[in-house]
Design goal:
CATH topology of the largest domain: Aspartate Aminotransferase, domain 2
Distance between the termini: 41 Å
Shape: globular
Bound molecules: pyridoxal-5'-phosphate
Number of domains: 2
Largest sheet: 7 strands, mixed
Number of strands: 12
CATH superfamily of the largest domain: Type I PLP-dependent aspartate aminotransferase-like (Major domain)
Strand order of the largest sheet: 1-7-6-5-4-2-3
CATH class of the largest domain: Alpha Beta
Number of helices: 15
Low-confidence stretches: 490-494
Structural class: alpha/beta
Order of helices and strands: HHHHHEHEHEHEHEEEEEHEHHEEHHH
CATH architecture of the largest domain: 3-Layer(aba) Sandwich
Mean pLDDT: 93
Length: 494
């Protein structure tokens, strides 16, 4: 029997700001204050001060309660299903956290001598090799700090390589099913964007690429699987067309969660791609937390990789900065190291078989939802999908509600809403990515919730006034982003 966790309104506190709890002289720690010589020896006098201005003064229990209460307002992967399309909000094994917290990793500093950090360098070196193997790319850099940063790095390498050949060119082809960060990464590298319309099957048409490709086009940048959750079936033919005219093929690999152990971008004619370690390789993310966006390259772009590279020598691991064609450093030090530790641990735990199974399950789960939701909702392009499925708002409009209403009502049912109104080529899109870590029971609960909401639309106020169980109901999203009010205000007074 399926047992769904039902959302109800819990005990939420109207929590004052921590600054408002402050009381002069109250302290949240109890280590002895160093005095006299000890104090002078520990910290040079110039740096000493008696108080830190502007810091709240609170006792330890108040700090703990403050943040725990605030956390109860939140929704996370550890609370329930989080099918936010394109974000791969899978459950992250806690053992990865334990590994990332080992003192040998957290206690090191980038300025330590190379001989002291051989283990960390080995981990970076091996993780690069694992990602190269998984993707079929020749070499990988772990420097970029996020997916979009990886895209930027890849485009910078393309620009440098073309400049080396005599002309950096001016344009990049980007399909309408690409992720929104792709055009930005091109603009930051001074490229103009030429948008390609995908076919009614939701993929890029090689003939369209051939028509638009010319000797001023630096590259095509496509997301595969694309934001409709579909595999770009003509990828090899497209790569050939672009290569023939001296262009490069960039693949946004943030959706590798669908391909692990099944398909290698390196074998499809891709010259450069980024990974999102914080998605596919299981690091908690969201809310702007740290990420990692490694970039893999084919042989032709290898000389342009950021420096320093790590080399394995008979005497141990060393830095190699002597690479004249490199685009140079794109991040301080070596990137977000503990995210690499989590990804390394995840890959070692899973092994090749486990990674393939993860992708198989991610694809199976998305297709299960496509089939089960497809009988009452409208699937944008109803063909077998990869890791996510996109619905349009045809059925919702008939029922008198909007995509946003349904998304907000899902919160009342205990689910984080899917991605909404993206991709732009689908009317009122609802982009659902269940990931491999949801059980069939949870998927069934999600389907039930979706059907219930469609039923409830007969009395639209139930849906249009959602969410009801949360501390705060609907906010004006534009104003909330521009003029954030971070204090609790009574319901309705947003
Ligand atoms: C998430 C995502 C990105 C951006 O990655 P960030 O780490 O958020 O910068 C780019 N492309 C695709 C397809 C994505 O899903």
């Amino acid at each position: 029997m399926k047992r769904c966790a039902e959302a109800t309104s819990g005990l939420l506190f109207r929590e004052p700001l921590i600054f408002e709890r402050s009381s002069p002289g109250r302290e949240g720690y109890s280590v002895p204050t160093p005095t006299g010589r000890k104090r002078a020896a520990a910290i040079p006098g110039d740096y000493l001060r008696d108080s830190i201005p502007g810091m709240p003064e609170v006792a330890e229990p108040e700090v703990v309660r403050h943040f725990l209460r605030l956390s109860h307002w939140n929704f996370g992967v550890d609370v329930g299903m989080y099918p936010l399309g394109s974000c791969t909000m899978k459950y992250n094994p806690k053992v990865n956290e334990a590994v990332a917290r080992l003192g040998g990793f957290t206690g090191i500093h980038p300025y330590m001598p190379v001989a002291w950090v051989q283990g960390a360098l080995q981990l970076i070196y091996e993780l690069e090799r694992y990602l190269a193997e998984i993707s079929g790319m020749r070499a990988v850099t772990l420097q970029p700090a996020a997916g979009a940063h990886g895209e930027f790095t890849g485009m910078a390498m393309i620009r440098k390589a073309l400049t080396e050949r005599g002309n950096p060119r001016t344009k990049v082809l980007i399909p309408d099913t690409a992720h929104g960060t792709n055009p930005a990464s091109c603009r930051l590298n001074d490229y103009r964007i030429v948008q390609l319309r995908s076919t009614s099957e939701g993929v890029v048409d090689p003939e369209e690429v051939a028509r638009r490709m010319d000797d001023e086009t630096a590259a095509i940048m496509l997301t595969n699987p694309n934001t409709l959750g579909l595999f770009e079936t003509h990828i090899e033919e497209i790569a050939e067309i672009v290569h023939e005219q001296g262009g490069f093929v960039f693949c946004d690999g943030a959706n590798m969660n669908a391909l692990l152990g099944r398909a290698k971008p390196g074998a499809m004619g891709i010259d450069v791609m980024q990974f999102n370690l914080h998605k596919t390789f299981s690091t908690p993310h969201g809310g702007g937390g740290p990420g990692s966006g490694p970039v893999g390259v084919a042989e032709v772009l290898e000389p342009y990789l950021p420096t320093p590279r790590i080399q394995a020598t008979p005497d141990g691991f060393e830095f190699d900065s002597d690479r004249p064609l490199s685009i140079g450093r794109i991040k301080s030090f070596f990137g977000n190291f503990t995210i690499m530790v989590r990804a390394y641990a995840y890959i070692r735990e899973m092994g090749p078989e486990g990674l393939r199974q993860a992708s198989d399950m991610a694809v199976l789960n998305a297709n299960y939802l496509r089939k089960r939701l497809g009988d009452s909702f409208n699937v944008a392009v109803d063909v077998p999908c990869m890791h996510e499925v996109v619905l349009d708002d045809r059925v919702l409009t008939k029922a008198g509600i909007k995509t946003m209403d349904l998304a907000k009502r899902l919160i009342d049912k205990g689910f984080h809403p899917p991605t909404v109104y993206f991709p732009l080529c689908v009317s009122g899109a609802l982009m659902i990515e269940p990931t491999e870590t949801e059980s069939r029971e949870t998927l069934d609960c999600f389907v039930d919730a979706m059907h219930e909401i469609l039923d409830e639309a007969r009395k639209p106020e139930t849906v249009t006034s959602a969410p009801q169980v949360t501390g705060i109901s609907r906010v004006d999203e534009v104003r909330a982003a521009r003029q954030p009010v971070l204090k609790w205000s009574p319901r309705g007074a947003a």
